[in-house]
Amino acid sequence: MREIAMEVTNSYGAIERIFRVVRHRRFSVCHCDITTNQQQKFAIKLTVAGSKSIDNLLEQLKKLVDVEYIGLVEKNKRQVVETAKSFNSGALSYAT
Amino acid sequence: MMNGAEYLVQFLERKNVRHVFGYPGGAIMPVYDALLKSKIKHYLCRHEQGAVLAADGYSRSTLGSHLPGICIATSGPGATNLVTGLANALLDSIPLIAISGQVNSALIGTDGFQEIDTLGLSLAVVKHSFLVDDITQLDETLNQAFEIAMTGRPGPVLIDVTKDVQQAEVPSSLLSKRTTHFSEQDDRREPAFDLNELLRLLSRSRKPVLYLGGGCLSSWHLGDVNKLLNNVEVPFVTTLKAVGIESKHLLNLGMLGMHGTQAANHAIQESDLLIALGVRFDDRATGNLTKFAPNAKVIHVDIDGSEINKLRKADLSIRGDLKSVLPVLNNALQKQEYSEWVRHCCSLKKEFCWRYDSPGPSIYAPRFLAQLSKRARENTFIACDVGQHQMWVAQHCEFSSPNHHLSSGGLGTMGFGLPAAIGAQVANPNNCVINVSGDGSFAMNIQELMTLIRYQLPVKIVLIDNSALGMVRQWQHLFFKDRYSEVDLSDNPDFVSVAKAFGLSAKRINKSHHEQQGINWLLEQSGPCLLQVCINNNEQVWPLVPPGAANHEMMLEENQK
What we know:
The complex is a heterodimer of chains A (96) and B (561). Chain A has 96 residues and is α+β, with helices and mostly antiparallel strands. Chain A has a single domain (2-80), classed as Alpha-Beta Plaits (2-Layer Sandwich). Chain A is 21% helix and 38% strand. In chain A, strands 2-3-1-4-5 form a five-stranded antiparallel β-sheet, covered by helices on one side. The two termini of chain A are 20 Å apart. Residues 86-96 of chain A have low confidence and may be disordered. The longest helix of chain B has 14 residues, at 48-61. Chain B folds into three domains: 4-177, Rossmann fold; 195-351, 3-Layer(aba) Sandwich (Rossmann fold), CATH 3.40.50; 365-538, Rossmann fold. In chain B, helix 17 (365-375) packs parallel to helix 24. In chain B, 37% of the residues lie in helices and 16% in strands. The relative contact order of chain B is 0.11. In chain B, helix 18 links the parallel strand 13 and strand 14 (405-406). The A-B interface holds A 11-13, 16-17, 20, 24, 53, 55-56, 59-60, 62-65 and B 119-120, 123-124, 127-131, 144, 148, 153, 304-306, 308-310.
């Protein structure tokens, strides 16, 4: 299982797009935590499982227009290790 | 006062949109009303799928113009009928904007008449989609839609606009702020890559092959690709989408893959370095992936990072626009010398060249298409459908440019050809446009013959008719022990009479000695016309890489073994 952290624009279909990509790229969702931050963006923590490459899933999710930030949370360190697009709200900071 | 529909149409005008394809209906009526006052010419197709595929063909045939194809439909069935066309554009990375009407905002979610969750059903078939239910969002959404469709890896975008937004008065604040140009915030920044590693891979290679895909078209820098091919001495192969890149080049080994040329497939399998530009290692191109180019290192360049390492691990990956990489490759490859390999590839090309000496009285479709392509005017567009004839076109026709070859590659959409030809003819009124179809595919959007006649578009239809679903029949013959299931179309109507009933001129040929006569007739017609070319239903597409095999393990026609 891997945990993905995302910051996503709150637009019509944004959450559905993420779940659709996860399913279509052959992962299953084990846990999901969605909150709205002060900028009215979604902060999403998604735990997924699957036998395919997690890097490929991240690349597919990155392409979604609504996804402003995405990172893989390293299991032990609780640290976001991979970043993409812009990260401007700080909503997804993790303690190291 | 200006309403949302008028604003939308004026926005399209400001984007220099001159042609749109569509079909009216209740929830899109304000937009159609606004079109009456517009300089934009609307082409009424006879099915929304025809409209979206026409917009797709329009877009493909104008790649480089920075204009997406545009189609319009109403809510409910109008929107659902767009789905196949949107998926077609998505899988081939075609920039396209679909505008659908939606019921009034208050009725969304009530299961009202012609109300369907268009945004929801679009999610899997577009690059992005919007629902506009607030007039203040209209301008920003339209701008975003154009930018998303055209930048990075292009693709289709759907804008679902509620009827109340179409009818709402546009606030004066919006009118003063409106924007006219997309920002071109494209992913064309200089890609970061290890130049030393690139040079090392190139210098160590003795058998490199340039493997060119649709990204070479989408990068809008086809001229730079052609320049590379003409400046360096490296054999190259193309995917289906890239067929037409330097068609006559000595080192063009042709299309690779399931129905690729023997030269291309052998060269790829023997190569020690694949320079993969804008490709996605599609299964139809690679055959058995684990056996694909087994000894080759891979340099993979693509603007879409998700394609890199998706199927084949790259030894050097370069994420970015080809434009930035081509000059580097050009300089580096010019310094390399691969003469022995080049000679070998040329000998493969010579050894495995196409043969057209099919015996017997029947028309041999590959020979017919090769002759047609040679005799057609320069810059002729050929839009094909899906099946055996599609592969014969890719194998045997020559093109001035890859955007003159309109083929549904990723989705393989039967019924694509005629509407795509309509789109190409609208965009290129002075060019010859030929739709090569099969009797199965042709029936899928046959209603668009009415569009041809209404606008007197001089599309030339070549109907390769084997009274069967030929490709499926071929597979049932080869892999299902001749158990033919639902592939017989021997009860087809008389297509010549059908075409004439729609108003086209039409003619049938069925003997090999009619081939030249048929081509003469076709090329002499000044208006929309159909030539029915009857062939034997036992004709097969060769070579064929069977399922699970490596690309060099091709099945061949008896006389090619």
